[in-house]
Design brief:
This is Coenzyme F420 biosynthesis-associated protein. The protein has 16 helices and three strands. With 369 residues, the chain is mainly alpha-helical. It folds into two domains: 1-88 and 103-162, Lysin (Up-down Bundle); 186-355, no CATH class. It has a three-stranded mixed sheet with strand order 1-3-2, with helices on both faces. α3 (64-89) runs antiparallel to α4 (101-123), α5 (151-161) packs across α6 (165-185) and α6 (165-185) packs across α10.
């Protein structure tokens, strides 16, 4: 269904080159990012109180083509088994057997081009990520996870913003190392996210009439986004069952992204002295961009991710202020402890349901002092 090799070729051909720097400077950037990722591990562990992986390796540093390849490898780990199951549901094609070999090959290359083009756009924007499904462990049964930082993008943005380079790099590492702490310190979280992704994909409505409706809605979403509306392709192509599942996925990803944003800002100015300046300038960049860029961001759901950062961070701040870090960390007890979409908007509802007896957090204690 997807020609993954063609996706990599397309993405690496289309991706824009990173900032032009010398080899010595590039090596220095890689060395510092590895050192700062290790430093951030300790700060995250101490601040969050999470029982994360002890002595994990430093972050893997990649360029833009390397990020594209890593993401395609991750997609293959997760999606190929699901695509085989989806293909079995499809009706037989009149073009030479189930699905038609020629038609399938052509469709796979077209989809590969689409995936590659999206990854080429994303590869110049992503600063880092915790790759849940890479690399597979030696047994081949479960992935071990890997933290990746995209060096050219970090250098590009710190130059564009005019911020202190070491502070900015550590600030980025704090966010990404928080994700590593989440997925290594919470044993069930990776499996939960993968399960929701699997359910979402298997809930695809392959009925021809329904698919035609989805295509019409996608076309309308594109037209609306171009006009400056709020539509996204993600919303347009969902079945009703997928919308329910996506609400659960959105809630958990809003939590983990918001938690990462909260930690990167809250660790303190003694760790990142210019954190307030960095946040202000970085937020201005998030909110900016050309009309075309904003349209693409809406269509691909990137604006939704930015909204997740803000809403998730607000949720975490409120909960920590009310019940302290120990109270907040009850969110990691089980899948049932995760906030719903509605609870993200109303943290006191989550506190009442999960924490129960209200304890005083730092902000409440300060108010009473």
């Amino acid at each position: 269904m997807i020609d993954w090799n063609f996706a990599v070729q397309t993405g690496t051909r289309l991706v824009r080159p990173g900032p032009q720097i010398g080899q010595d400077e590039a090596r220095a950037v890689v060395t510092e990012l590895r050192e700062l990722s290790r430093l951030a591990q300790g700060h995250v562990r101490e601040f969050t109180g999470m029982d994360a992986e002890l002595n994990p390796g430093p972050a893997t540093i990649v360029d833009r083509p390397g990020w594209i390849k890593a993401n395609v490898d991750g997609f293959r780990v997760v999606l190929e088994p699901l695509m085989d199951r989806l293909a079995e549901r499809r009706p037989a094609s009149p073009f030479g057997g189930p699905g038609g070999v020629v038609v399938q090959a052509l469709g796979a290359r077209v989809t590969g081009v689409q995936v590659g083009a999206i990854l080429a756009y994303m590869a110049s924007r992503v600063l880092g990520q915790y790759e849940l499904f890479l690399p597979p462990d030696p047994s081949g049964r479960t992935p071990t996870g890997r933290l990746t930082l995209v060096a050219p993008n970090i250098v590009q943005i710190e130059n564009d913003l005019g911020v202190h380079t070491r502070d900015f790099r550590l600030w980025v590492c704090l966010h990404e190392e928080t994700h590593r702490a989440q997925f290594t310190g919470v044993p069930w979280l990776r499996a939960y996210v993968q399960e929701q992704m699997t359910e979402f994909l298997l809930a695809s409505d392959l009925d021809p009439g329904a698919m035609l409706d989805r295509m019409r809605e996608a076309a309308e979403a594109i037209a609306d986004a171009v006009r400056g509306g709020e539509s996204s392709l993600i919303d347009a192509i969902q079945s009703p069952e997928q919308r329910v599942i996506l609400d659960r996925l959105t809630a958990v990803m809003t939590l983990v992204e918001g938690h990462g944003d909260f930690v990167m800002d809250a660790v303190g100015p003694e760790v990142v002295p210019s954190v307030k300046e960095i946040r202000a300038r970085f937020q201005g960049r998030r909110d900016g961009g050309s009309r075309l860029d904003k349209t693409i961001r809406r269509l691909l759901g990137i604006d939704l991710k930015m909204k997740q950062y803000a809403e998730g961070s607000k949720f975490v701040r409120r909960v920590v202020a009310e019940v302290g870090m120990d109270g907040f960390n009850k969110v990691w007890a089980s899948a049932e402890s995760l906030p719903t979409i509605d609870e993200i908007q109303e943290p006191t509802a989550w506190i009442a349901r999960v924490v129960g007896t209200r304890s005083l957090g730092p902000a409440a204690e300060a108010d009473q002092a």
